[in-house]
Amino acid sequence: MSVLRIYCPLPAVPTTCEWVLFDEHGGSQPGKGALAQLPQGAAHVQLVLAAGQVLLTRARLPAAGRRRSAALLAYAAEEKLASDPDANQVSRLGQVDGDDVLAAVDRRRLQGWRDALDAVGIRVDGVYCETLALPIRHGEWSLAWNGRDGYVRTGEFEGGATDCGDPQTPPLALQLLLDDARTRAALPASIALHPTDAAAHPDVGAWQRSLGIDIRLASPHDWRTLPTLGGPRIDAGGRHRWRPPAAVLARWRAVGWILLAALALHSVALLVDRARLGGEQRQLRAQMEARFRTLFPAAVAVADPVLQTRRQLARLRHAANQPDAGDFPVMLGKVAGALSGMRDAKLHALSYEDGRMTLEFAGMPARQIETRLGQAGFDVEAAPAARRPGRGTLTLTPRSP
After folding, report:
1. Model's pTM, two decimal places?
2. 197 in the same domain as 150
3. 107 and 228: one domain?
4. Number of structural domains found in the chain
């Protein structure tokens, strides 16, 4: 996977830059020139900011504040910033000893570089600080030194630029950081010194005597040669968000059109099926009304042919001295037969009106009673309370033959 890494000096006008392109085979191609000459088509684009252009500071945030926007985080770091908080983009990197570590960069300048790169077809995927790209070991600090000045990484999320020094005298900023670490009992065991220039080799003995700590010469450090950038990514809340490559967008756009067409066909099929079912329902009702009028021509109006047919049949049975399924004695007999042998079913109250019987039970096994009454030929309607242990209510109506 190819990676284009661009070194971004924020104070400079975004016209030229240094860069390095890592190809899929691990090879690298460094370069320097105008933004319009940057390589195109890299899978990922990384922006590297100089150590002196990123302020890494601690702040104590409430738990809810850690998820706030960069604009609100800027006010949390206001005491450490020398400019208007609204002029800075602030991101939360992590937490150290109960404090939240924030990274602040100049909003306008960073956005100017983003816009300039976007204008030449380069979309930035991630922003990194060269301070946090330094390798670091537990209990040790890392210092990058070019013979004149440099930058130091003091922890997973902490560090910063140093002032000037010479081969005999270490930077004053490094001495102040060590003094502060002594007061917090957080002094490192040693400092790994990574030269960034072939001639950047100080007098290690003089530095150790001045700082009072061991200095270990480490491998050279250069952002151009690092296969991967260590440390957290600084996403400073820029306007441009990650977007997939154009080829991926085109492929998913075609998939989206297919899904949209399938959804449209499915919706049309549902509407056709609903219209068909509605027509069948109207046809069935018309047939029931016609059959009812044939059987009972004296009826004036037909509102519910099923219910009216049931009532007419009940009247005819009563006229012929025959019981109907909705009569109280018939329903009571079926209920008694269905509940016979169920000692846990304690009938608390019973009421009957016009073919509907309501039963109230105490301590009822609701599911078992509903099953038995259904098998006895009733349509059972259970009140919500009947679903819980204790007292419940069931309403019974004779099931249509």
Report:
1. 0.57
2. yes
3. yes
4. 4
pLDDT at residue 58, rounded to an integer:
84
**Residue 317 included in any domain:** no
Q: What is the pLDDT of residues 155-201, one digit of tens each?
A: 999 999 999 989 899 999 999 999 999 998 999 999 999 998 877 78
CATH number assigned to the domain comprising residue 384: 3.30.1360.100
Of all residues in the chain, what percent carry a pLDDT higher than 70? 87
**Residue 232 sits in the same domain as residue 91:** yes
pLDDT at 75 over 70: no
For residues 163 and 265, membership in a common domain is answered with no
Looking at every residue in the chain, the average pLDDT score rounds to 84
**Residues 210 and 231 occupy one common structural domain:** no
Q: What is the pLDDT of residue 162?
A: 92
Q: What is the 3-state secondary structure (H, E, C) of the chain?
A: CCEEEEEECCCCCCCEEEEEEECCCCCEEEEEEEHHHCCCCCCEEEEEECHHHCEEEEECCCCHHHHCCHHHHHHHCHHHCCCCHHHEEEEEEEEECCEEEEEEEEHHHHHHHHHHHHHCCCCCCEEEECHHHCCCCCCEEEEEECCCCEEEECCCCCEEECCCCCCCCCCHHHHHHHHHHHHCCCCCCEEEEEECCCCCCCCHHHHHHHHCCEEEECCCCCCCCCCCCCCCCCCCCCCCCCCCCHHHHHHHHHHHHHHHHHHHHHHHHHHHHHHHHHHHHHHHHHHHHHHHHHHCCCCCCCCCHHHHHHHHHHHHHHHCCCCCCCCHHHHHHHHHHHHCCCCCCEEEEEEEECCEEEEEEECCCHHHHHHHHHHCCEEEEECHHHHCCCCEEEEEEECCC
